[in-house]
Amino acid sequence: MRDQWLGILFCSVFFLAPQLGYAEEFAGMLVRVDLNSVTLQGSNDEKYVMQVEQGQRREAAPYLGKWVRVDFRTEKGACRVIRFRPPR
């Protein structure tokens, strides 16, 4: 009986959080936060623009001008931010 509950729990976690399983990661300096996007500068001085939601702008604000790791997904040719994390 306990094994069945663990199986059900594992399956529900797997289906409730699928976006983190397909995320890619990028590390760079956050140089700009706009209304719907953020701009990151990589170590090779290339700039990358990624789409963000309204609440994620507040999450990104403390990293402005600093290095940050970004988990993102590519949707319809555009990169969409999932979350911001401090560098390792």
What is the topology?
Blueprint (H helix, E strand, L loop, with lengths): L1 H15 L1 H4 L2 E10 L3 E5 L5 E5 L2 H7 L6 E9 L2 E8 L3
Antiparallel strand pairs: 1-2, 1-4, 2-3, 4-5
Quick description:
With 88 residues, the protein is an alpha+beta fold.
Low-pLDDT windows of residues? none
Rg value: 16 Å
Helical segment count: 3
Return the average pLDDT rounded to an integer: 83
Describe the structure.
It is a single chain. This protein has one domain (22-85): OB fold (Dihydrolipoamide Acetyltransferase, E2P). It is 30% helix and 42% strand. The chain has helices at 2-16, 18-21, 54-60; strands spanning 24-33, 37-41, 47-51, 67-75, 78-85. The protein has a five-stranded antiparallel sheet with strand order 3-2-1-4-5. The longest helix is centred in the N-terminal third of the chain and has 15 residues, at 2-16. The protein starts with a helix and ends with a strand. The mean pLDDT is 83.
Notable traits:
elongated, OB fold (Dihydrolipoamide Acetyltransferase, E2P), 3 helices, 5-stranded antiparallel β-sheet, 88 residues, alpha+beta
